[in-house]
Design brief:
globular, alpha/beta, four-stranded mixed β-sheet, 5 helices, 10 strands
Length: about 210
């Protein structure tokens, strides 16, 4: 399965008081052409889609027009978006029911069960090939704030926040591993170094 990974679009950004909408549009047009040329089956967008938590109507329209055009030109395309530290998790997830019709999954924040525990299963997203079969699993973990991660009791100089991030990634990976079938990959997507878990490797990631 062929993926294209991208991040940090910062739609709506201005630079020295100059609006960058035209530059962003050139990039989005290039990206659609590249997706088509490469016959990609997955587009993974790793956060900071917008430049701030209250994006303009024009920048939101730019994103949704791109998603619609990408799906029209590549009907087999899986799209996955996660929030970065510049994004509003709630705003990013608000149109999720509509985006689902474009095979676009959105993870804006760490989901929780009614009892407050983390819904680990929702952070594991299946990705399908052009035949409609699950070909990979993506660990879709958005930008993590201290309140998003499991509590970890640490001794000495260890940072509970960093320990909580590491624990959450391990928990999500542990949930994904039993779901994987021969030939399927596990791809970790988050605002940190990306790890690819090849089907032939049952333990250590490669970077």
């Amino acid at each position: 399965m062929r993926f294209i990974h991208t991040s940090d679009w910062h739609l709506g950004q201005t630079l020295h008081h100059f609006e960058r909408g035209a530059e962003h549009q050139h990039f989005l047009d290039w990206l659609i052409n590249t997706l088509e040329a490469e016959q990609a089956e997955g587009l993974l967008i790793c956060g900071d889609i917008f430049d701030n938590a209250n994006p303009s109507a024009a920048s939101q329209k730019q994103l949704y027009r791109f998603l619609q055009q990408a799906k029209q030109r590549l009907p087999q395309l899986n799209i996955l978006l996660i929030a970065g530290n510049h994004d509003s998790p709630g705003r990013l997830e608000a149109p999720a029911p509509l985006l689902a019709s474009l095979d676009a999954s959105v993870i804006g924040f760490v989901p929780r069960h009614p009892d407050g525990s983390i819904d680990i299963a929702r952070l594991v997203v299946p990705l399908k090939n052009r035949a409609g079969e699950v070909a990979a699993w993506c660990l879709a973990i958005p930008f993590l704030r201290p309140g998003d991660v499991p509590r970890v009791e640490c001794d000495g100089e260890a940072d509970p926040y960093m320990a909580g991030i590491a624990l959450l990634y391990r928990q999500v990976l542990d949930h994904a591993r039993p779901l994987r079938r021969p030939g399927q990959a596990i791809h970790a997507l988050g605002p940190c170094p990306i790890c690819l878990f090849h089907p032939s490797d049952s333990s250590a990631p490669t970077h």
